[in-house]
Specification:
The chain has helices spanning 3-6, 26-34, 36-43, 56-75, 80-84, 97-101, 155-170, 213-225, 237-255, and strands at residues 22-25, 90-91, 107-111, 116-120, 124-127, 133-141, 178-186, 199-207. By secondary structure, it is α/β, with parallel strands linked by helices. Strand 5 (124-127) and strand 6 (133-141) form a beta hairpin. Helix 2 (26-34) crosses helix 3. The radius of gyration is 21 Å and the shape is globular.
């Protein structure tokens, strides 16, 4: 049973009086940008949003892509797709690669002005001849037509890439503004399943900018330190749901 439905509070809850660094994952910073009230409920009050269902097929694709690129990492050879997309790079070899991929650790950096220990788990890193690192993120879907990162909801993908770029820069690496999404799209137009899925693989470059991150961290800290609940965000599905529940229950509460 999930922590939400079991009634348990989140373990990593912010204490304004504590001087210890507070662990803030990449996804939680994105949560702050999406809705300050939900972020406050989660990290300050310990009431998280209901968890989403695990995407097992996406996880399988992620694992297989890592194995595929790791073969070329070991051989110090470019993936064949690099020639297709004109990418002059190799999979980056580093002793911390598995640590950086581990969701419980990831790439970490203590941002002293906010006292947040910021972390994020990457999918892959490539390196070009100039020694610059390219952050790489794997995505999987099944849709008609070409995949892209142009939809409004994909702003989270872009922020994810930019936070990773920022984390590596803060860890002393030279990082290119250009990152890559390895986007795989499963075919649904085959005559039969035949026990297998077939995918198109597309590499999409994205030029990121991390200039917003420092101010976002300071604003997130300010939000968590406040003793007042942020206003509901009417663009947030969770805020709208909570309001709808409150409105529906109001007549019954008046009768009590």
């Amino acid at each position: 049973m999930s922590q939400y439905y079991s009634g348990k509070r989140a373990k990593n809850v912010f204490d304004p009086a504590s001087k210890e660094p507070f662990l803030l994952s990449r996804s939680k910073l994105d949560s702050f940008l999406n809705c300050r009230r939900c972020f406050y409920l989660d990290r300050r009050l310990g009431v998280a949003q209901p968890p989403g269902y695990p995407f097992s097929l996406n996880s399988a694709v992620d694992a297989l892509l890592k194995k595929e690129f790791d073969i070329h990492r070991t051989e110090k050879s470019p993936h064949p797709l690099f020639a297709t997309y004109g990418i002059d790079a190799l999979p980056f070899q580093h002793e911390k690669m598995q640590e950086w991929r581990d969701a419980r650790r990831g790439v970490q950096y203590l941002h002293e002005p906010s006292n947040f220990l910021v972390s994020g788990a990457i999918d892959d890193i490539w390196v070009n001849p100039q020694g610059e690192l390219h952050v790489v993120d794997y995505k999987a879907t099944s849709k008609n037509g070409e995949v892209n990162i142009d939809a409004d909801w994909q702003i989270g993908y872009k922020r994810q890439m930019e936070i990773y770029q920022w984390l590596f820069r803060k860890n002393g690496f030279q990082v290119s503004n250009v990152g890559y999404f390895v986007y795989v799209n499963a075919h649904t137009d085959r005559k039969a399943f035949d026990g297998k899925l077939e995918f198109d693989v597309k590499i999409i470059p994205y030029e990121g900018s991390d200039v917003w991150i420092e101010s976002a961290l300071l604003e997130a800290r300010k939000t968590l330190e406040a003793d007042t609940l942020p206003e509901a965000n009417m663009d947030c599905d969770f805020c709208l749901y909570r309001k709808s529940v409150q409105d529906a229950l109001a007549p019954f509460q008046k009768k009590e």
